[in-house]
Amino acid sequence: MKQKKPSRTPGRRLAWLVVPALASLPGLADPGTASAERTDTDLLRPPRPVRAVGFRWENDAVGETDENYSNGISLSYLHSGRGLLGGVWGWLGVGKGQFFSSYDVGQIIVTPKDTDRPVPDPEDRPYVGMLYASASTQLQRGNVLHGLKLVTGVVGPASQAEHVQAWFHELIGNHKPQGWAYQLHNEPIFNLVYEHRRKYPLLADTSAWSAEIIPVGNVMLGNVLIQAQAGAQVRFGYHVPDNFGTTLIRGFGALPYARPRRNGDSEPRWGAYVFASGSGVAVARNLSLDGNTFEDSPSVEKNPFFLTGEFGLSLWTRWVEVTASFVWWGEEFKNQARPSRFGALAITVPF
Length: 351
Description:
Elements: H1 9-18, H2 40-43, E1 51-59, E2 68-80, H3 88-91, E3 98-111, E4 128-141, E5 144-155, H4 161-172, E6 187-198, E7 200-201, E8 209-222, E9 225-238, E10 270-286, H5 287-290, E11 305-317, E12 321-329, E13 340-350
Antiparallel strand pairs: 1-2, 1-13, 2-3, 3-4, 4-5, 5-6, 6-8, 7-8, 8-9, 9-10, 10-11, 11-12, 12-13
């Protein structure tokens, strides 16, 4: 069994690069740079709806596997306004814009490829369960969205991942995983996430059909993940909503609810679009691969860079938004047999 202590040097370097840059990002420091395409009325347009609840489920059964990222589930609450963390925008000198807040609770389960072995393969990733809660604040200024998220919780037996997976496998008639005795030890988790999104139209918005590209970049700092990710989402559809696309649990988790684009005095009641996303991820620290921060634990040698892809369909109305997708997540560690594949389902209900 490999035992390895993570190096903190990459995280420190990444922090020194990221934190000073936040206040100078386009659309954040200067109100006039948020979007040349939006008027003051658009910038101050009140968000609608002001509250929404969301359910998100990600599982590898869609990819016909039971390995790596096995299951993720979360519940979220979103509302307009600054919320618990919204004061940070004042510290950065931001006065105007639309503010949103969201709160999530969830659980993540990660397993090795062969779950029939009582003693897991030391060359495969360890069993990991994570129970977490998060709070986020988001700032929209025209076609630009900034988000800050704080995640806390616990990794290890206290996450109850072993019991949840055993119950679910019994429910669907699958075997019970045998190696949970070798999961990571209990450890509190703390992570900070910053994400930036910006929309660009690909087709003239002169009809009900439209297309756009949304570049996405984020940085994560903490004892769970120290990484940077950059990519883009392209979407095309009928009455594409005025929002910023889709996300995953291992992303920002919750984004402002879809709302119709105004077309004169009328607004559509529903819309649908297809989308495809791709990104590159540079990783300095991954708790699920590097093992516990302060104790010896199972670990494997991670890959410092990998690619991701996703495609799916989203349907929205004034009463519900449903998004389903298939995700391809590249090889995260040395000797990984194949990339992770899982399905994602998100349901959001405004009220």
